[in-house]
Amino acid sequence: MAEREAVQEPVELCDWCGRLWYDGGVLAIVRDSSAVHATDPAKDGMRLLVACGGEHLGALLERYRQRPFVEEELWSWQIVRALSAAPHDMTVEELSPVTGLTTPQIHRALAWRDECALHADRPGQDPP
Ligand SMILES: [Zn+2]
User: The pTM is what?
Assistant: First the structure.
């Protein structure tokens, strides 16, 4: 049986170009209303960017600098997280303590989602 050389596994994937690399890279955190952490609400609205170098990180930072931070979008994704973990359907009143959102915030999030559905060709925000 032939010996195999150890294969070094890539550890990172550039968010801009998709290139894999073994060492180096640059990281940044940006505000992003479409980013909701799977389990830690304190990290909601923050996205980790990973790039193969400064040029691609700069392009990513510019993309997110131009993307509006929409609270209703963040709330919509927080509602999705809560419903995904819930054992049953929930009312708005039940969602409030689970999400930490007020009832008016939940209604604004739902209205934002409906508005996005009416203008699906609008770039930048993808409703839940
Ligand atoms: Zn890259």
Answer: 0.79
